[in-house]
Amino acid sequence: MKSKEPAPVAPATGHRAEQPHRATAWPEARAAAARAGTAAGAGREPRRLPLGQALGHVLAEPLRALTDLPSFDTSAMDGWAVAGQGPWTVRADTSVLAGHAPTAALTDGEAIRIATGAPVPPGTTAVIRTEHSRTEGPLLHALRDVVSRQDIRPRGQECRSGDELLPAGTAVTPVVLGLAAAAGYDELPVPPRPRVEVLVLGDELLTAGLPHAGLIRDALGPMLGPWLEALGAEVLGTRRIGDDAEELYAAVTGSAADVVVTTGGTAAGPVDHLHRVLDKAGATLLVDGVKVRPGHPMLLASLGGGRHLVGLPGNPLAAVSGLLTLAEPLLAALAGTSPTGGRGPAPVLDEVHGHPHDTRLVPVVRRGDHLVALHYNGPAMLRGIAVADGMAVVPPGGARSGQELDVLDLPWPPTSGAVPAQGACFT
């Protein structure tokens, strides 16, 4: 018997009486996104990357030393390895060099020239720095008292084989690469980067040229992919889809991404198809609207199988709000990291107006110890966020001058004062 074709997506009705809007408080929405990412990331097997490719990832497992460091007693200085009490008879025409096997054992009263990092010969009592010694013929004299084991780095001084050097979740920096190499690693275990596909929705969007005849330029298509990559995602691509529910359904259900990010269609207008598409796809809404401005119609849905969809509003700054509220904590948890680290809360220089009931996210720059709110912070505007250091979290009712606000820092270096000279971006 022939299987039935999937039912078409129900046409728009202009309202969603069957699914009443229940917005989530802003902190709870971010927590829900982080929980979803943690649950989905728990079953993902780590990858092993060569050291040269692991920079910018995080450790999927603790970094444990594969050897003692140092792995043998080494000289900490250029000078002389000596045995017993001085003066010492110098072994003629021979030296101990780094990268060479240890020389024969020293006997009491004997000295041999040694280089920094070289293995100390068996029987060595101490190393005397070159500047703390003098020679007279075949004899070496110390110019200072000699303490047993001085200037010798003993085997295992930094760590013993099996010691935990760094915990899982540590960002792989150039120094971490160096430590891993010293500890014996050729590869590092890292969580796989979350795969993301961006679906830009709307018949009204142009990809080139000037706006005209009711059409506007697509600002989100060029912006979202690089932003998501900065958050640690592997972006599979950015696709543009018209206001067609069936096309959107096929794109969402056919995507190979761990996270599908859509723009627009999250409200209840005549061409806002996303809720009906998710319902047809059997998705579970985890967050359906957030008490935040701009961006309150954003949503987060589970598509099953550890896959998720983040629905961003279509207005550019509202979409940025959705990125910071839902996409960033979701992706960070999937990748085993924390959301973008900030420099902590700071007092706002002047009063910042808030929403009566919702959290408000406002582009700000840091000026000394204070935050300065930027103008051009409407839902459709990018002029303010383009020069911002981050988005300040303004509680319902607003913030008074001097009040400390948390800041969602952006995943790239701060502007360091790159605000237009006329200051037109400041409120």
From TrEMBL:
Its cofactor is Mg(2+). InterPro entries: MoaB/Mog-like_dom_sf, MoaB/Mog_dom, MoeA-like, MoeA_C_domain_IV, MoeA_C_domain_IV_sf, MoeA_linker/N, MoeA_linker/N_sf. GO terms for biological process: Mo-molybdopterin cofactor biosynthetic process. One of its GO terms (molecular function) is metal ion binding. It is an enzyme of class 2 (transferase). Its EC number is 2.10.1.1. The keyword Lipid metabolism does not apply. It comes from the Bacteria. Belongs to the MoeA family. Catalyzes the insertion of molybdate into adenylated molybdopterin with the concomitant release of AMP. This is Molybdopterin molybdenumtransferase. It comes from Streptomyces nymphaeiformis. The lineage of its organism: Bacteria, Bacillati, Actinomycetota, Actinomycetes, Kitasatosporales.
